[in-house]
Specification:
Length: 71
């Protein structure tokens, strides 16, 4: 049963990571609508944040893909 708890913990972490990214993208979209001249800077920040987030998610998926679940 402990292995299932580990899997659920990873899913929760991924969920909150995706929620945080979604909120950040909404905020950046509103800022772009208000200040269109900042589009280049905001888009570059989004690319940097998404790049880091995807690397972190990929590392977690790789780390936990080695787990085996026995029923």
């Amino acid at each position: 049963m402990e292995k299932f708890e580990v899997v659920f913990k990873v899913v929760r972490q991924l969920f909150w990571s995706l929620v945080l990214e979604g909120l950040l993208l909404i905020i950046l979209g509103v800022l772009i609508a208000i200040f269109p001249e900042l589009l280049v800077a905001l888009v570059s920040v989004v690319f940097i944040v998404l790049g880091v987030a995807f690397i972190v998610i990929a590392a977690k998926v790789y780390r936990y893909s080695k787990l085996t679940i026995t029923l």
